[in-house]
TrEMBL record, chain A:
Identification of the protein by name: Monovalent cation/H+ antiporter subunit D family protein
A Pfam family per the record: Proton_antipo_M
InterPro entries, per the entry: CPA3_Na-H_Antiporter_D, NADH_UbQ_OxRdtase, ND/Mrp_TM
GO BP terms: ATP synthesis coupled electron transport
Entry GO MF terms: NADH dehydrogenase (ubiquinone) activity
GO terms under cellular component: plasma membrane
Domain of life the protein comes from: Bacteria
Membrane-spanning residues: 6-26, 33-52, 80-101, 113-132, 168-188, 208-229, 241-263, 283-302, 348-366, 378-401, 413-433, 454-474
Main location: membrane
Assigned protein family: Belongs to the CPA3 antiporters (TC 2.A.63) subunit D family.
Cleavable signal peptide: none
Membrane topology field: Multi-pass membrane protein
Keyword Transmembrane helix: yes
TrEMBL record, chain B:
Superkingdom, natural source: Bacteria
Transmembrane segments: 6-24, 44-68, 74-96
PANTHER family reported in the protein's UniProt record: ANTIPORTER SUBUNIT MNHC2-RELATED
Record-given protein name: Cation:proton antiporter subunit C
Family: Belongs to the CPA3 antiporters (TC 2.A.63) subunit C family.
Location within or outside the cell: Cell membrane
GO cellular component terms, A-Z: plasma membrane
Cross-referenced NCBIfam families: PRK07375.2-3
Main location group: membrane
UniProtKB keywords: Cell membrane, Membrane, Transmembrane, Transmembrane helix
Membrane topology note: Multi-pass membrane protein
Pfam annotation, one family: Oxidored_q2
Length: 495, 119
């Protein structure tokens, strides 16, 4: 048994990878669902085991096929990616059991198992990006997760889903190709692809110009994947037209994993010092984040579709994460990393609850949701709580992030930034209030009179995440504790 | 280090920009994918060209051969080609579905139909 436990890093990726073809071979809806649930729960168990082990013994290095790094591919788990692994597999473990009813309602029966196969592949890709210590391997897993994502979005009910998937395919491929150009330049300068080795050898590179080019290509490429304002154009349509469970899973994991890649490159590979001196990255990132926080929130206020509104809210929330990165001090990075978890859980809860509304009402535009607070009290209440967490009300997970961001801004002496953070939170109040007004303060729509609460299994799993977004507002020992350790690790590597 | 001695980079950069330009400038969904393919192909060259040593052979130890080309970029690009093929196949499959749903593959007409649907 101890032999098997040594292989946990490989199993983390291999298990979802082999379940995808199994699902396609067996072609049974129920088998597909059960296997997906089992795999996602085992993935969560493995991720937690790795997290605990990293806390006890430090970095875990696993040589794939026993080829020693830097020649072979290394899986390397440290405080930062153990944390991200837990987030990704946790969300998958909640979304997978939720999916059965939601998918049955939104997809033709003969396509259901294909969606579960794609879900497993996407999970493989996201976990793989996070765990691997090889930059080219990151690209391969990035494409595995992206290609499966395009398919999942294209399976949406309306024909606009196809166009959204196509647009995302074009932009996502450009992003991934930019990333490959970047690592190609790094390989030309150093002759290695292993992250730790790369960081070591880059210090001796005298010719700085190719590095700056590589750095720019990687920033833009990953910026596209994580929907950094103004590279977010693919996101609102993709989130709006994808099936509900897909939106919930993607919003909680895909962009977060891309942020992880950015953190890895900025702080582990390049090292903060070269980078913040070589190019005005910090200032550019700061400006884009501020613009994203304010504009995306403003655009969200004027949406008529609940899903689209929260999609724009995602763009602004991602800007909070990149804002923390641009401040590049310990509090800022802690805020960024903790917001990966906080926003992942909160937004996951929101889109799962919206999935319940979509099941009962068919559409999720505001004019059809009047009086939904009486018809679906638990769903609406959950949405309001999650909305409070987006705003950052004390007692919710969102507050914890805002707190660290404000501390980070004050540390840098940016008092104006504190005002911007508070201001953009106030805009969030405006769009969350729009839902409250429609749900609780309007006359019920006759067309939704007899429709009751969402099925218990969907509602239950959505509420797991809602309660999570409250829990991490009170007990921050895991969320902030893990994030602070990861931030210290990143900044330690920079020195 | 003259300009001509690094001509492979000029070819690479030309393909890169041409591909990206097609993606942006063309409204036909299939043509966009062609541009995307050219853009991805340019990256293959970026990796392969520096791996080649003039006069070098395949990296198999044998008497009489001293200089070997670097095999790693070839292997990496083999993976990237597979990814490129998969992307193109999926892209074309989606275009087929779009054509079934909208009856056109011109971006302008698709957006026009969407606008009319909303109004």
């Amino acid at each position: 048994m101890s032999g098997l436990l040594d292989h946990l890093p490989a199993l983390q990726v291999v298990l979802p990878l082999i379940s995808a073809p199994l699902i396609v071979l067996v072609r049974r809806q129920r088998f597909a669902w059960l296997l997906t649930v089992a795999v996602s729960w085992i993935s969560l168990a493995i991720a937690i085991a790795l997290f605990v082990k990293v806390g006890q013994t430090g970095v875990i290095s696993y040589a794939i096929g026993s080829w020693p790094p830097p020649w072979g591919i290394e899986y390397r788990v440290d405080a930062l990616n153990a944390y991200v692994l837990v987030l990704v597999s946790l969300v998958a473990a909640v979304v997978a059991p939720y999916a059965r009813i939601s998918i049955a309602a939104e997809l033709p029966r003969e396509q259901e198992y294909l969606l579960f196969a794609m879900f497993c592949l996407c999970l493989t890709g996201l976990l793989g990006i996070t765990i691997t210590g090889d930059v080219f391997n990151v690209f391969v897993f990035l494409e595995i997760s992206s290609l499966s994502t395009y398919v999942m979005i294209a399976l949406g009910q309306r024909r606009k889903a196809l166009v959204a998937a196509y647009q995302y395919l074009v932009m996502g491929t450009i992003g991934a190709t930019f990333y490959v150009i970047g690592i190609g330049l790094l390989y030309l300068m150093t002759g290695t692809l292993n992250i730790a080795d790369l960081a070591e050898r880059l210090r001796d590179v005298k010719e700085i110009r190719p590095l700056l080019a590589a750095y720019a290509f990687i920033t833009v490429g990953i910026g596209l994947k994580l929907a950094l304002f103004p590279l977010h154009q693919w996101l609102p349509n993709a989130y709006t037209f994808a099936p509900s469970m897909v939106t919930a899973f993607l919003s909680a994991t895909a962009t977060k994993v891309s942020v992880y890649v950015l953190l890895r490159f900025y702080f582990t590979v390049f090292g903060a010092s070269i980078l913040f001196e070589g190019l005005p990255t910090a200032d550019v990132l700061l400006a884009l984040s501020v613009a994203g926080m304010v504009t995306a929130s403003l655009v969200a206020v004027f949406q008529d579709d609940l899903k689209r509104m929260f999609a724009y809210s995602s763009v602004s929330q991602i800007a909070y994460i990149t804002l923390g990165i641009s401040l590049a001090n310990e509090a800022g990075l802690t805020a960024s990393i903790v917001h990966l978890l906080n926003h992942g859980i909160t937004k996951g809860a929101i889109f799962l609850l919206i999935g319940g509304i979509a099941l009962r009402c068919g559409v999720v535009s505001f004019d059809r949701l009047r009086g939904i607070g009486q018809r679906m009290p638990l769903t609406s209440f959950g949405l309001v709580i999650s909305g409070l967490s987006l705003i950052g009300i004390p007692g919710t997970a969102g507050f914890v992030t805002k707190w660290y961001l404000v501390v980070a801004a004050i540390d840098r002496g940016y008092w104006w930034l504190v005002a911007v953070i508070v201001g953009s939170s106030l805009i969030a109040v405006a769009y969350v209030w729009r839902f409250v007004e429609v749900a609780y303060l309007s006359e019920p729509d006759e067309r939704s009179v007899k429709r009751g609460e969402a099925p218990a299994s969907m509602l239950g799993f959505a509420w797991v995440l809602v309660i999570g977004s409250l829990y991490f507002g009170f007990d921050t020992s895991f969320s902030v504790g893990g994030a602070r350790e990861a931030a210290a690790l990143l900044l330690g590597g920079a020195r | 280090m003259s300009l001509a001695s690094h001509y492979s980079y000029w070819v690479t950069i030309f393909l890169m920009i041409a591909g990206l330009f097609i993606v942006i400038a063309r409204g036909n969904l299939v043509k966009k994918l062609v541009g995307l393919g050219i853009f991805q192909t340019s990256v293959y060259l970026l990796y392969i060209a520096p791996g080649k040593l003039i006069g070098g052979t395949a990296p198999i130890i044998a008497s009489g051969f001293r200089a070997y080309s670097n095999p790693l970029p070839h292997v990496l690009i083999l993976t990237a080609i597979v990814v490129g093929v998969a992307t193109l196949a999926l892209g074309l499959a989606i275009v087929v579905r779009i054509r079934e749903a909208y009856g056109t593959i011109e971006e302008v007409e698709i957006l026009e139909q969407d606008r009319r649907e909303e109004a």
